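Thread: heme C complex, take 2
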Amino acid sequence: MNRVVMVLLSLGLWASAQPSLADEAVISSLMERYRAAGADQPDAARGEALWKRKHGERSCETCHGSDLRRPGKHARTGKRIEAMAPSVNPQRLSKARKIEKWFLRNCKWTLGRECSAREKADILAWLKQQ
Ligand code: HEC
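Output below.
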């Protein structure tokens, strides 16, 4: 096998063994931002509880479903929402702007207010493990 192919192959293997490198950078920069805004000890268990908690009829699961490894369905439009778990959907938690945009929109829809930095840090801590 020629060397270029071997290098490319091993790079490919390395890349696939490290699927969350870029995501980790995005997540830690967001976490740093939240920490600066007062979220000192992100807590995945608290994030999970908040994700599942009902506010009236609404919760994060209303659209994302109760199994993050499976697609959800938008409560209003009925549109499919791809799985939230980064382990099955590597697109997830890979773009800070997207994460912030949807935190804003979805917290408002679900809780009737924006999420605090601490709440976002907790949810992110939990989501990234999924
Ligand atoms: C009314 C439906 C709906 C509800 C309820 C909802 N979401 Fe979402 N969410 C969406 C849609 C639509 C998208 C964007 C489409 C996509 O990325 O597949 C999205 C995307 C996201 C993303 C972006 C993830 C990424 O990196 O791609 C985050 C973070 C998120 N939601 C968090 C939440 C949280 C936290 C709650 C509960 C407070 C919540 N969502 C409740 C509809 C909803």
